[in-house]
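How a chain folds remains the central question behind the approach discussed here. In the encoding step, the backbone of a single protein was reduced to a row of integers, each denoting a local shape. We regard such an encoding as a compact summary of how the chain folds. The sequence in question and its structure tokens are set out directly beneath this paragraph:

___
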Amino acid sequence: MRHRKPDDPSANEGAVVPTRRNASIPEFDHDLPHHVTRQVRQSVRLEGTAGDIMQAARDLYETQGVAATSLTGIARKAGVTRSLLYYYFPDKQAVTDAVVDDYLEDLVESVSTWNELRAFGDTPSELKKCVSMVRRALYTASRELRPMFTVLDELGVRDEFATQAVREIVACIQDYIVSEYLAYRTIEIQLVPETFGLLIFGLAGMMKAKPDITDEELAILIAQTLRLDMTVMDPPPWPENPLPDTPSD
């Protein structure tokens, strides 16, 4: 569960507000709104003092390990007192939960950021960019797994994390990408969210099993699996892509 508290200690003292969590891969709704403009997802990262504390813990977990990190050390690195840390997080487990949630947001936010920046209608090139984004989210430039996986392994939650990450990425894809795709193209597959879930697990597994596989090859696998319409379309008349002015008579 994600925990969020107000940055002002005088507001809603002691309140913990959980954000949405998917218990399973969401069902596909064929009647969902077909957005004709790009939808922007709101980040759920912790901000303010709570975010500073979480980031300090994340940095320490990745450099010296979870067991070797104390709340005193986290407070010192975040530049806050222990009492203020306890206002936002009742114990070390709550801090750790927030760090794991931030790792989840790394992955989901990478997908949503790609979606917000992608060129409309250019599926062939944008698929390769999407694969590149996934690779960067999981691996460093030297092809080493990112430090978060060492932390997840120490906590013994890597499998649980992977399952939750796939659920949330699928929900993001369905809410912000599939809905737009439906406005302009036809979905040719059944079991849409389940197919995306299988594809994401497979994409990560293939990168691990065959590190030298190219982004272009993975993009081809995605297109084949999803039976995507690869026809390049002209940009729609959105506000960010306005139609040229028509000369007046």
Notes: Residues 158-184 form the longest helix (27 residues).
